[in-house]
Amino acid sequence: MTPSSIHVPYIEGLEKMDFRDFDLAMDAYASKGTVMQVNWPGTYPYCPDCTFAIARSKTHLAVIYHVRGLDLRATQMTDNGRNWEDSCCEIFIQHPTDGSYYNFELNCIGSLLCSKQPRPHQGTRLAQEQLDRVIRFSTLPRKEVELEGRIFGWSAAMLIPFDLIGVDPEHLPATLKANLYKCGDLTAHPHFLSWSPIEHEKPNFHMPEFFGTLILS
Question: Which CATH number goes with the domain that contains 196?
Answer without folding.
Answer: 2.60.40.1190
